[in-house]
Amino acid sequence: MLVIAHLSDTHLDDDPESAARTTRMLDYVHGLAEPVDAILITGDIADNGAESEYRLAAKLFASPLPVLVCPGNHDVRGAYRRGLLGVADGGDGPINARHDVGGAVFLLCDSSIPGADEGRLEPATLDWLAGELATTTSATPVFIAFHHPPVELHHPFIDSIRLRDPEPLAALIATHPQVAAVLTGHAHTAAASTFAGRPLLVAPGVISTLRLRWEGPGPFADRGQPPGVAFHVWDAGRLTTHYRVVV
Ligand SMILES: [Fe+2]
Ligand SMILES: [Fe+2]
């Protein structure tokens, strides 16, 4: 059995609240009676993309557990590489990473478009993804994670900045039955859907929660709601997800 704690959208900045909410969440995860196999954080690590925000992230994300991170639209590739990954000059290309955890493969893709809020998997990322998928067998569960949900979640703002051009990704998934799920962030709301016939699971936000249209007027990004986490459990070929908030 594999258990992944999936959180997203820490939006770290100079406001102590973002660090406090992130710390509250990670203290909860680290204090669990049984350790999870990995912590997954799907982007918008920093709020402004400043290198100091990534140095703070590196400090807060320090863990005895594997921590799997990808960028979001608020992130800036160069500062992310320097401050969080400790890479002095890694260029401005997409930040994609593979992690092998407990017999599963996590392929973390950079869905950001520098300077834009919507997302796209650029050709270099799709090529990388295809190459990594080709190294896995149908017996290996593969989780594809990135920031921008590739489908509408029925919120006008979030839908307007979702992943563009998801068709090549859907085609890749269609030919790889070992893809167990697609895991994203960006929406600041715990959501479950499907994409290319696989589960699509969206992590709740750490910094805030998206107010849904039918919840009525109120702050668009509600900080009155506590940070949340998704626990993804992979066992005997089935994915089960539990959502928790940390008050
Ligand atoms: Fe965000
Ligand atoms: Fe985002």
Account of the protein in words:
- The chain is built from 6 helices and 13 strands.
- It is α/β, with parallel strands linked by helices.
- Strand 12 and strand 13 form a beta hairpin.
- The strands form 3 sheets. A 6-stranded mixed sheet has the order 4-5-6-7-9-8, with helices on one face. Strands 3-2-1-12-13 form a 5-stranded mixed sheet, with no helix packed on it. Strands 10-11 form a two-stranded antiparallel ribbon.
- The structure holds fe (ii) ion (FE2) (2 copies).
Secondary-structure map with pairings?
Elements: E1 2-7, H1 16-30, E2 38-42, H2 51-60, E3 67-70, H3 77-83, E4 97-101, E5 104-108, H4 123-134, E6 142-145, H5 156-160, H6 167-174, E7 179-184, E8 191-195, E9 198-202, E10 209-210, E11 221-222, E12 228-235, E13 238-245
Parallel strand pairs: 1-2, 2-3, 5-6, 6-7, 7-9
Antiparallel strand pairs: 1-12, 4-5, 8-9, 10-11, 12-13
Bound molecules: fe (ii) ion (2 copies).
One fe (ii) ion is lined by residues 44, 72-74, 147, 186.
In short:
The chain has 247 residues and is of the alpha/beta class.
Summary tags:
247 residues, alpha/beta, six-stranded mixed beta sheet, five-stranded mixed beta sheet, 6 helices, globular, binds fe (ii) ion
| Biggest sheet descriptor | 6 strands, mixed
Computed CA radius of gyration, to the nearest angstrom: 17 Å
How large a portion of the residues is in β-strands, by DSSP E?
A: 25-35%
Compressed to H and E, one letter per element, the order equals EHEHEHEEHEHHEEEEEEE
| Adjacency order of strands in the biggest sheet | 4-5-6-7-9-8
Average pLDDT, rounded to a whole number, is: 97
The SS-based structural class is: alpha/beta
The total of helices stands at 6
What general form does the structure show? globular
List the uncertain runs.
Answer: none
Bound molecules: fe (ii) ion
**What fraction, in percent, of the residue positions are helical?**
10-25%
The counted number of beta strands is 13
Q: Ends: how far apart?
A: 27 Å
